[in-house]
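In response to reviewer comment 3 from the previous cycle, which asked for concrete evidence that the modeling workflow produces usable outputs, we include below a single protein chain processed end to end. The sequence was submitted unchanged, and the resulting structure tokens are shown without manual editing.
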Amino acid sequence: MTLLENRKLTFIIKKSVATELLRHVSHSVATRPGTPALANIYASLSKDTLRFVTSDLATVSIATTEDITIVQGGTGLIPAKQFTDVVNQLPKDGTVEVAVIDDTVSLSSSDGGRWEFPEQSVKDFPKIDLKASFTRVDPLEFTDAITYTRVAASKDAQRQNLMAVEIVGKKVTSCDAARLQQYKMSAEFPFDICLPTNKLSHVLRVAEQAKDVLAVAKTDKHFILTTGVYTFAIAMNSVTFPNVEQAILRPAMTNKTTLRADRSELIKALNQVRIATDDFFQSLRVDVRKTEMTLSTRTQYGARAESTVGCSWSGDPRTIIVNCNHLLEILETHSDQEVHIKLADDTKTFKSALLIDNSKGTSVLQQVTSEW
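The workflow returned the following structure tokens.
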């Protein structure tokens, strides 16, 4: 889809329709643009369809609708912030007329408001070509895979090569060095791709909008996700995702001794004890016995919490120390009623990672060094 230049358009749009379009395209509006045009929405009217396009160069968002009144077809730039402000103040059933004529953007609301803004040069808006060969994927499974793995996608700028979710074949993987999540899809993804951590929320938003149709494509410049009505594209980057499967997952796969517990009971206990954690001390101590395990936390100021959960454990009594929030976030992505945590034998110098199997995939959580 190549954007063509034409300097005039006029249309009338309802608040509810404009709000829905803005909810999608506002993500890609540049907040501190080097080019003023990037703070605008590229609007184009052709036949019976209105298309909004925004871009901050790292991403592109496109939304379309036929639920408008067309007065004059064409194209133009609409200031994103000001248009959003006007739409937000409209009454629930209000409308706004948008006219771009003679380098001026005129907004007229149904409740009597009128605003005029100078139009930025359309020539300064990037030429966007998202022509590609699209392949349909299961929207529910794709959404589930990203939801499952995003919790372990690194947000640490010092680990840029881990700030992504990697999709290779049927495997969707994330890792922040402390934990790993791997989801196994039922069918192979059409191509290999790394989705940046800071774009995952909007990728999910688009996928969740898909009712029956979700299609993906990859070009030299972009990864593209579309529902037909909404399209989101991410600029490709050169970051190489490390082989975390070999470094972290495979060693944990050798764990043999299994700890079993009810997932909902364990989540309840974790929510109770994490009240007594803080930014300085987020460690969770788990003392495991044959039929029960005791969860303990504390803060740097002396607050403490403890909760006991029933379990099944065939090994010798032992103590596990992990990040409380990390374990809770992992368990919340699982759906099986029973949690299976596999452990290897610890030594004075080696603390095994926890391998947590479930029907969706696999999780690995590293133990932490902590003074208890």
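Confidence is low (pLDDT under 50) at residues 1-7. We consider this sufficient to address the reviewer's concern, and the full set will be provided in the supplementary archive.
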